């Protein structure tokens, strides 16, 4: 069936039975809306550049292939063939798109970008894609899966595997959100065996918890203004980069030993463990604790805070902090590194000194000394001007934050006057001794 080469939107309602492979094509930018039901044993194959929209209940059992253009399943529409697959872009040169925008799709397996030279995209912005088997994003070609809004992708009843960039030369990306609200991936594991070409991006607003385990060579990127919480025991080796918003590592990801970078206004925190060599770059922030700033973040590798990077701590009371950073390896605080203090509206006596243990390191931090007051900033600290701040370390790898009272002006004047009086007495005695 061909919906032509124009931009006309056409709607038809009759039912259709597929007894053999049936191609729905069209090279225009028009939309072909099929409001009836499609049944039969044959597969549905979408080609061309046009859009085919399904709004009815479709039960054909031969599977679905999207080779070109867009196949869209909207509210009220459904595709149910649980014994066969949903495939997007199966031949070199294919550039197909699957959009689920409120409908329900149920298939055996799912595949996006199956062969070298093919490129496929699937977006689930509302509605569901239930996959009883497994899902591959970028098998030998390039695949992208976007899960946004109220969209849900359920793989293997919530325990299945999503494979990204499956073979040499392939590329795959899983996007949880594309700048707005993130949808839900219900799966057991997200994995890859291809370094550098497999990625998971969290690009969303609001708060979002990701429960599937991240394994293999996957790289994780946090974009968007929201807060992402990783709750699983993750072992991915492709690194963890925080470019915006907040990433909280609450599970034990000690084996996630790829290099990590926090930059561009991003924040890394949590109450779990993260491995690898982690670096906080310009305008990046690291802190221990959950979303409220309470708890300990453990780094099983090393930590470097570069110039412009920020170490953030939250005060609990006049003796302890609410959060802590525990580094198993080396802790390097480079010149120009910054310290942010959330005083949590604790009341401080301006005549009293305070010392807080805020971090530990597996190696000596005896050379650490930050006293430049321009590198310290505060919030919820009503009398911060009454103190000077310093960050120091010791040979045992313990890092301290000190508040030292600024002398009162009257005290300074008194000391100066006393000094002047003492100097006058010395001069008078000296003159008398010369006369004698």
Describe the structure in your own words.
This protein has 436 residues and is mainly beta. Helices cover 6% and strands 46% of the residues. It has one helix and 46 strands. The N and C termini lie far apart (125 Å).
User: Total number of β-strand segments?
Assistant: 46
The Rg value, from CA coordinates, equals 31 Å
Bin the strand percentage. over 45%
The whole-number mean of residue pLDDT values reads 92
Question: Could you say which overall geometry the principal axes of the C-alpha atoms support?
Answer: elongated
Helix content: under 10%
Q: Helix/strand/pairing class, anyone?
A: mainly beta
Low-confidence stretches: 412-436
For the termini, the CA-CA separation is: 125 Å
Helical segment tally? 1
Largest sheet: 19 strands, parallel
Structure, briefly:
This protein is mainly β.
């Amino acid at each position: 069936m061909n919906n032509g080469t124009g931009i006309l939107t056409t709607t038809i309602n009759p039912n259709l039975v597929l007894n053999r492979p049936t191609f729905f094509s069209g090279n225009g930018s028009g939309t072909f809306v099929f409001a009836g039901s499609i049944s039969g044993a044959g597969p549905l194959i979408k080609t061309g550049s046009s859009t085919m929209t399904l709004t009815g209940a479709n039960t054909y059992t031969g599977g679905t292939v999207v080779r070109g253009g867009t196949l869209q399943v909207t509210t009220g529409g459904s595709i149910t063939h649980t014994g066969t697959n949903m495939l997007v872009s199966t031949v070199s040169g294919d550039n197909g798109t699957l959009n689920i925008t409120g409908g329900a799709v149920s298939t055996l397996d799912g595949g996006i970008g199956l062969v070298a030279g093919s490129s496929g995209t699937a977006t689930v912005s509302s509605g569901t894609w239930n996959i009883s088997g497994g899902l591959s994003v970028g098998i030998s070609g390039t695949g992208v899966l976007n899960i946004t809004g109220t969209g849900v992708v359920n793989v293997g009843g919530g325990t299945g595997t999503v494979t990204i960039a499956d073979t040499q030369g392939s590329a795959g990306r899983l996007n949880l959100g594309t700048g707005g609200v993130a949808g839900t991936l219900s799966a057991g594991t997200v994995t890859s065996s291809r370094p550098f070409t497999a990625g998971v991006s969290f690009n969303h607003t609001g708060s979002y918890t990701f429960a599937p385990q991240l394994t293999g060579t996957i790289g994780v990127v946090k974009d968007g203004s929201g807060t992402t919480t990783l709750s699983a025991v993750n072992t991915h080796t492709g690194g963890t980069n925080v470019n915006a918003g907040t990433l909280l590592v609450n599970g034990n990801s000690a084996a996630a030993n790829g290099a990590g970078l926090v930059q561009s206004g991003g924040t890394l925190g949590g109450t779990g463990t993260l491995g690898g060599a982690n670096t906080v770059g310009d305008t990046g922030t690291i802190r221990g604790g959950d979303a409220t700033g309470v708890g300990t973040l453990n780094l099983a590798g090393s930590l470097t805070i570069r110039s412009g990077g920020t170490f953030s701590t939250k005060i609990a009371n006049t003796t302890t902090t609410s959060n802590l950073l525990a580094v198993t390896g080396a802790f390097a605080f480079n010149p120009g590194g910054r310290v942010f203090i959330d005083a949590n509206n604790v009341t401080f006596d301006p005549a009293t000194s305070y010392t807080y243990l805020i971090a530990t390191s597996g190696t000596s931090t005896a050379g650490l000394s930050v006293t430049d007051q321009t590198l310290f900033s505060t919030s919820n600290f009503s009398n911060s001007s009454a103190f000077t701040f310093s960050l120091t370390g010791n040979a045992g790898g313990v890092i301290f934050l000190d508040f030292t009272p600024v002398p009162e002006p009257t005290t300074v004047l008194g000391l100066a006057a006393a000094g002047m009086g003492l100097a006058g007495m010395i001069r008078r005695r000296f003159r008398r001794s010369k006369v004698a």
